[in-house]
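From the thread on structure requests for the teaching lab: each student submitted one protein with a one-line request. Submission from student K.M.:

"Model aldehyde dehydrogenase (NAD(+)) from Nesterenkonia natronophila, tokens only."
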Amino acid sequence: MSVEQKTADLLDEVRGALQACGVEASALQGSHPVHTPVTGQQLLSVEPHSAGDVTEMIDQAHAAFKTWRDVPGPQRGAVVKRWGELIAQHKSDLGTLVRAEAGKIVSEAEGEVQEMIDICDFAVGQSRMLYGKTMPSERAGHRLMENWHPLGVVGVITAFNFPVAPYAWNTALALVAGDPVIWKPSEIGVLSGMATNALLGRAMRDCGAPEGVHHLVVGDREAAQPLLDDRRVELVSATGSTRMGREVAPRVAGRFGRYLLELGGNNAAIVTPSADLDLALRGIAFAAAGTAGQRCTTMRRLIVHESVADELVEKLRRAYETLTIGDPGDSGVLVGPMIHQQGFEGMQAALEAAKSQGGTLVTGGQRVLADKYPEAYYVEPAIIRMPEQSAVVCEETFAPILYVVTYRDFDEALELHNGVPQGLSSAIFTSDQAEAEVFLSARGSDCGIANVNLGTSGAEIGGAFGGEKDTGGGRESGSDAWKVYMRRSTNTVNYSGELPLAQGVEFI
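Reply posted by the TA:
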């Protein structure tokens, strides 16, 4: 089948999915081209918004907040419940769009959609549990407590590699918290964004929610500027590179706004002498090669005890050479394309730098299927052994490269693990309980996520997701991440009939 026919067939799937989700055909005409990494060719075009359009969205969202904040939490939760039902009904449609735009294999694309369903379920329960506390007052006849109130307009900026799930992590919780949301998806993931937004709009209408509570921004980074600078946007949640975070944070902080950052990851696993190597092999292979290495939680570093390094690397080499690379819609394919030429070139530059710093390529790194898809970038996931954790290893290259370094004692392994600027996800493979406990302790992994005997990818929505250091410090999804989207009010009620001051102060 020619690349043109493959693109045409994919376009038919995409149009069908968009129509099923409620996206109007008239919205699929404009000056902004939408390409697919599957073939590298253009699928559709959409009309981008201007910065002025986004300011109007902020106007509408800010006005809607005055109504939405007074809707009871469980009723706001009913909207999210309906949204989750619609996402579940259209799981295959949304999966098709994620596959077309991000190049994910079918199970990974639909797995991302499942994350949206799961966070909606979580948020619906949370809508009845926006708990504050009652604390003992030091003054007799007084009650001391805290309440949580809606924060205001929330701006959400997401990246290409997970075009819909992080939006749902933020939006499901923001909505039950009483906040309107304005979403700026990656311009690479705009079609899945339009479909997701259409389903939310239907849920809003089905539940009789007020107008203006949710908005979608189509366009490049310039269109998002009002979200960073407008004081009415109380919180900006941004997912992307550390470079992007360094721009977002000071601009939002400069107006005393809040920001939630989910940035780079240079995730590692430690493999100890007691590890089950077959278990480690499965966990490492998916975490390092899945999604063509384009997850923020992708495993990029493998820190292996010298006594088991040769055996494990050989197992990995054999496993990598069985990975099926190709069209992510084809049965049996495990590794789809990289997102674009820039990503591929970044990978090649990193491999050359690693070799110049003493690295030895074990396997992979070559572009494949270029004759079939000359405008797409399929690549063999690479393993490269390094004599030390050199400069290139300490950088995040958003590509399927796994650097392998060895260690002699456990303290050295921890030092290597924590010796990079990023701090998102981490793992240890061990059968030694003491090693596992140390890894999870304050002197162990310095990441926001620390796993034992599983890889660095695949976080569940029940736990808070995020990392430290150059990863930005943000937390999304489960646990008490809902508090980010609300403001805390500490209240004291005096029912004593007297007016004692705190700390025994006497003023009159």
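TA comment: The chain has two domains: 3-263+472-489, 267-459. The longest helix spans residues 106-126.
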